Each structure stands twice: as structure tokens, then as C-alpha cells.
Amino acid sequence: MKTLRFIGMAIIAVIMSVNFVACSSDDENKSDSPLVGTWIMTKSIKDGHTRIPGQNGFDSGLGLVFSANGTFYNLVENEKAEDGKYSYDEKGNTLTLIYTDDETLFCSVKSFSESALIISYTEGSSAREDYFVKQ
């Protein structure tokens, strides 16, 4: 009888082990992208002219918010504006923003650290460079 009870407990232990191994972890979907977080624009240079958010008619509260799941959104007046998906190629220093309206913006990452980000891109026929600090 003790042998039968031991075999029964062993079978239950094996079933429980398989059950725990079969469950996936929620951590698998997390990105370790260094971009994740809120980035506030400090200035923008367009065609050689420097613009400061909140001055001379330039919107204030501008920024980008990157999530670990590969999505992002723009901030305008500190409110969520356009959104989409992003990809960041550290080796190629390229940030690609794919907006939900099918517009894609290819940015060159000029400088990047834990607290500062500078990207450049073409907007229409204008060259633009945006400066951000991490909030």
C-alpha cells in the first residue's frame, strides 16, 4: 500500500512539474530597449533655425513616449497625440517610427545616452534635428 501511495505521489509531482514548465512567462514580451520611457523635446532645429517648445508659436509639451511592447506615441501640449510602432537599430543608429496612419518616419540617431537623445530626419523638403531629455 505504501508503494502504491508513493507511485501516486510521484505521478502527481511529475504532472505538476510539467504544468509549471508549460506555462509561459509574461516577461518574454518585455523589451530591453534603452528607448523605453518618456522623452521631452528641449529644442528643434529646422533648416538651420532653432525652435524652443512653448516659444514663438511653437507648441509646448512636445515629446515621445516609447513602451516596452514596441509601441510609441507623440506628446503635444503634454497630451497623447499620434501613435504607432517603433523599431530601434542600435548598430545602424536608426529609429523607425511607423504611425497608425501608415506614415513612416526614418530617423538617424545622432546621439543617445540614458538621459539625452538627438534624432535627425527629413520632414517634407526640410532637414530637422530634434533634441530630447528623458523624463
Describe what you observe in this structure.
- The chain is an alpha+beta fold and 135 residues long.
- It contains 1 helix and 9 strands, in the order αβββββββββ.
- Strands 1-3-4-5-6-7-8-9 form an 8-stranded antiparallel β-barrel.
- A hairpin with a 4-residue loop joins strand 5 (79-89) and strand 6 (94-99).
- It is globular.
- The termini are far apart.
The percent range for strand residues is over 45%
Main sheet makeup = 8 strands, antiparallel, barrel
Number of helical elements = 1
- In the predicted model, the low-confidence regions spanning at least 5 consecutive residues are 17-29
- Overall average residue pLDDT: 84
Work out the radius of gyration: 24 Å
Helix content: 10-25%
Order of strands across the widest beta sheet? 1-3-4-5-6-7-8-9
Topology (elements, then pairings):
Blueprint: H1 2-22, E1 37-46, E2 49-51, E3 63-66, E4 71-76, E5 79-89, E6 94-99, E7 104-112, E8 116-123, E9 126-134
Antiparallel strand pairs: 1-2, 1-3, 1-9, 3-4, 4-5, 5-6, 6-7, 7-8, 8-9
Quick structural overview:
This protein has one helix spanning 2-22; strands spanning 37-46, 49-51, 63-66, 71-76, 79-89, 94-99, 104-112, 116-123, 126-134. It is built from one helix and nine strands.
